[in-house]
Amino acid sequence: MTGPTSTQDEQPAPVRRARLAVAGAFAVQGLGFAGVLTHLPAFKDRWGLDDLGVTVLMFAVAVLAGVGSMLAAVIAARATSASALRLALLVAAVGLAVLGTAPAFWLFCLGLGIYGVALGLIDATTNMQAVALEAEYGQSILTSFHAAWSVGGIAGALATAGAAALDWPVAAVLVPVAALAVGVSFAPFRRAEADRMSPSAGDAPIADGRAIPWNALGLLGLALVLFYVADSAASSWSSIYLSDVLLASATVAPLAYGAYQATSLVSRAVGDLAVRRYGPTNVVRAAASVGVVGLAMVIAAQAPWLAILGFAVLGAGVAVVAPLTFAAAGRLAGPDPGRMRRIDGLVARLNQFNYLGFVLGGVLTGLISSGSGLRWGFVVPLVGIALLLPLAGVFATGSRTREPTEAAL
Q: What is the pLDDT of residue 185?
């Protein structure tokens, strides 16, 4: 990262508070996302959907999330990413509340659409805030924010499993999450008023006059697509895979997603330290290798606990890829002046690749499962994660520190 290395205690109090606030927003996003996805089997039963119907809904959510990400760029450019994030949390609260209480299918679809837009808004704005804070800290802290997202994901999966065991309705999980989103919207996020009049984040050249290297951003976008192919498959289809293919109960099925998020939390909790010691390229190579093993275990599983273990291994491997992608993109913004505004634009553009991966992972997995069975649908993310190996070098983009050699590891 550019700038001097700083510790948490050396940062001004407003910066430390902003870091906690942004971590809270990541956690709420993970909680809501897990609450929606782990209820997919319940939604299937409630509305009489098949795998193809779920696939269509996931595609619609991905498209709307892409719209939300573009809206985030517009709002952040005209105001701040903090303002955009507050709005996003409020929109998410509305969507989750409607999803949890909808008495008719058209209202369910409306709630899902509102939540889809909010999903893109929150994804973009939380990462804008996180990348800007990492630039201020001068060292890797991105994976800690995504670890907070994983904490929320674990809580959401456990809440769904607990509600199923008690025979509680979907509203018992989603409505409290909506209320929590409203509360977090008042948190002290990082503001950037001083940077508001700087050149447009997406179009400004870096300080030495060279254009932003869009080729590098494109490669990072491809890496993000490949990660989200696996993440979307695990998030959207793990509960259905356990319940429909491996005949797990409604209490056990959500634990696959919970296991994926639990090991993702561990991976992201140590990710910043690993990057500082070994460099992002080596970390991504190791992550992809472990992820391939995990997906192979999922495909071969003949019992629910074996699939849960496979999803756990997958999370332990690939979870660091997304935050490291955004961190590398943030370094493309160059030094001041106007760095923070350029970061917002770069992150918003990169975030679009998120939803392409979401579509490819969720939709292709569903389409293949419709014809050949859901077990074979997981071949799609396995191939995607394997393709991260030759892309690992791009994660060192913009770094001013020398990448550790393999001989030094």
A: 94
